[in-house]
TrEMBL record:
Signal peptide: none
Domain Lipocalin/cytosolic fatty-acid binding: 16-164
Organism domain of life: Eukaryota
Protein name: Lipocalin/cytosolic fatty-acid binding domain-containing protein
Gene Ontology biological process: lipid metabolic process; response to reactive oxygen species
Length: 190
């Protein structure tokens, strides 16, 4: 069944209002990566639209062992002419030189009309994220998103809930995790 689903093109959101999509999103659950710290918590993404109206600055943060790890990159529509919410996310890999950009897919599979929660996947179905504007998502809505992912051919048994504290930590008053390498690897499935 999953094999058949994999052949079927995933349905993605059409006409995403990028402006409304900007701001902070908390990771409620995701497919964990072996590169991610097992104790990663308070993981979140902040999106900011650049003046060109087409490029998005991406800041991903997570806390592990009391330290904040973060990685920055950019996102842009895979096909500017299409109204489908298929984005490419590009990260630069520090602290290595030369700087190597790593590019991954970011498909918005579902978003509610108020832009309060979203389901993000990518074509290989190896990565899945459930995002919310608040650190906690209503269980019923969470289950609906999981069902939708399942219908799109994802193995939802791999979903792992991300611990979120309320109120969330703010980034400036904690020691930084300078390694941060796991972010690229986990996000892009490398």
């Amino acid at each position: 069944f999953v094999q058949e689903m994999a052949k079927k093109e995933m349905e993605v959101v059409k006409g995403l209002d990028v402006q409304r999509y900007m701001g902070r999103w908390y990771e409620i659950a995701s497919f964990p990566s072996r590169f991610q710290p097992k104790d990663g918590a308070n993981t979140r993404a902040t999106y900011t639209l650049r003046e060109d109206g087409a490029t998005v600055n991406v800041l991903n943060e997570t806390w592990s062992g009391g330290k904040r790890g973060f990685i920055e990159g950019t996102a842009y529509k895979a096909d500017p002419a299409s109204d489908e919410a298929k984005l490419k996310v590009k990260f630069y890999v520090p602290p290595f030189l030369p700087v190597i950009p790593v590019v991954g897919d970011y498909w918005v599979l579902l978003i509610d009309e108020n832009y309060q929660y979203a389901l993000i996947g990518q074509p290989s179905r190896k990565y899945l994220w459930i995002l919310c504007r608040q650190p906690h998502l209503d269980e019923e809505i969470y289950n609906q998103l999981v069902e939708r992912a399942k219908a799109e051919g994802y193995d939802v048994s791999k979903l792992h809930k991300t611990p979120q504290t309320d109120p969330p930590p703010e980034g400036d008053d904690v020691p930084k995790d300078t390694k941060g390498i796991w972010w690229f690897k986990s996000l892009l499935g490398k």
